[in-house]
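Appendix C reproduces, verbatim, an entry submitted by the partner laboratory led by Prof. M.T., so that reviewers can inspect both the input and the predicted structure.
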Amino acid sequence: MLQQLNIERVLFLDIETVPQHANYKDVPKRLKPLWDKKAGFLAKNEETPKELYNRAGIYAEFGKIICISVGFIHNGEIRLKSFYSDEEKELLIGFSDLLTGFFGRNDQLLCAHNGKEFDFPYIARRLLINGLPLPHMLDIAGKKPWEIQHLDTMELWKFGDFKNFTSLNLLTAVFDIPTPKDDIDGSMVYSVYYKDKDLERIKEYCQKDVVALIQLMLKYKGQDLIADEFIVEA
């Protein structure tokens, strides 16, 4: 499949998420006991729901998207665009418009690392929670597996091994894909967003993951990496 894949038909993406509220005390009364129950399954060392609340962003019911970065290859360039905002509905509308417009055809594909388990369902759930329609590419109900327009670089790396979880960071190291040394990683997004209030920094981090994702797919296909001078931001 990979050798036949037209990589210019693929929209690569990554999302960054945080808890819906800066602090546990701000969680609405109706949701707080439900988070407490969820946190009970997460606790390993008797942590309290309050102590675990910075992890709420990984669940679409308790979190929100603050950035969706996308990238695609065109004429030998990686072209990047990000939708980021404190207002989740605003960025979701922008992203949906892209999916239903330029990337709305049946021959286009979406690709993310662990996208089938995280990015794609998370976006779909947050769209519905915000009262927005699902774009065709995310509306998979009733579709046959071969009709779903999703690729997942982690799934491709599994080769049928359902136990295997391999991070994007590890794969870029294994394939010797250069990545910039940053002062931020995924575990820091909550703090950078709510304490530093630096959404621009999070956007830059998200875009770099998209670049790494595209370069990894090129490696999967046995093709050369794209040099930094051919990476442009829309």
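The radius of gyration is 18 Å. Additional entries are available on request from the coordinating office.
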